[in-house]
Design goal:
The protein is of the alpha+beta class and about 300 residues long. The protein contains six helices and 16 strands. Helices cover about 30% and strands about 25% of the residues. Strands 8, 9, 12, 13, 14, 15 and 16 form a seven-stranded antiparallel beta sheet that branches. The longest helix is centred in the middle third of the chain and has 23 residues.
């Protein structure tokens, strides 16, 4: 299988000196030959063009998506160097066939928690608010609507589910019980600092960063908490057009919400069923690619 293929996860490409270790919904992970994920000091992370939604890998892929996510992540990792350590070792010392969509990274012992930070109320956070008047254990004022800006950025963690399973929103207190207060408090501090820095950067470029999902791990050398995975991409964040922002409705966005909306309202697929989602129409694929490119170009000021 090519990294450009949006089809089923059947066979990952091979690279001299690297052993394939893991296929995710979107990424392929490799370790140095003879190593394992548990023993490796570094990993090769290859971003494919696959796209996922509602914990399903979709078909077909989105052309150039892996390259866009890798390039944008590198911009963010550089911007955030003064905020938190990250796992990137090199974007150039990678196999030629995946240059531009692969990163050599420090191998981390990943924390089993999705670190979600919300600056605006939408998505599953809105559903939780409508049910409980709170998000992630944070009580919120009455009268908020879809798209409302929150009084402050909120850390609202979720479980990190196995592939094919669903992440579950939990409270900060539940996260502390599972992982310990000291670790969760550090994750909250770092995640909120990342969001605040990124939110200012994006707003200066006409984009609202509504929320984002971050992943952290411990360095195997220093045991420090390190930012890993991708960061602040249209796959892991909600980006809205600042000049079209209007609370009380769905916001024009530059992320995969377009795909989620088609699956929910236009495809006839029941996301609560065990049936796989239908293939994405060409128009949805093309529009999603255009949105990802626009997000990259607005945020970086460069042509893709």
């Amino acid at each position: 299988m090519s990294v450009h293929d949006g089809g089923a996860l059947v066979e990952a490409p091979t690279f001299e000196g690297w052993d394939h270790a893991l296929s995710g919904k979107v990424r392929e992970l490799y370790v140095p030959h003879g190593s394992t994920l548990e023993s490796a000091s570094e990993v090769l992370v290859v971003a494919t063009d696959r796209i996922s939604a509602f914990d399903h890998a979709l078909t077909p892929g989105i052309p150039d998506k892996g390259r866009i996510l890798t390039a944008l992540s590198l911009v963010w990792f550089e911007h955030l160097e003064g905020v938190t350590e990250n796992h990137v070792l090199s974007a150039s010392d990678v196999p030629d066939s995946v240059r531009g969509r692969a990163l050599r990274c420090e191998a981390l012992d990943m924390v089993p928690l999705e670190c979600v930070v919300r600056g605006y109320l939408t998505g599953s956070g809105l559903a939780d608010y409508r049910r409980d008047g709170a998000v992630g254990g944070h009580a919120l004022p009455d009268g908020l609507v879809d798209g409302s800006r929150l009084p402050s950025a909120l850390f609202t963690p979720s479980t990190k589910a196995e592939q094919g399973e669903h992440d579950e929103n939990i409270t900060v207190e539940e996260a502390r019980i599972r992982l310990g207060s000291e670790l969760v408090d550090e994750l909250e501090e770092r995640a909120v600092a990342v969001y605040r820095s990124a939110e200012r950067f994006a707003r200066e470029r006409g984009i609202i960063l509504a929320d984002t999902k971050l992943e952290f791990g411990r360095s195997r050398h220093t045991r420090n908490i390190v930012l890993g995975d991708e960061v602040l991409t249209p796959d892991s964040s909600r980006f809205w057009a600042a000049d079209q922002y209007e609370p009380g409705r769905a916001q024009p966005s530059f992320d995969k919400q377009f795909v989620r909306d088609w699956l929910t309202y236009g495809s006839g697929w029941d996301k609560k069923s065990q049936v796989a989602p239908p293939p994405l129409p060409d128009a949805v694929v093309e529009s999603t690619r255009a949105k990802y490119i626009e997000a990259y170009e607005r945020l970086t000021g460069e042509r893709f």
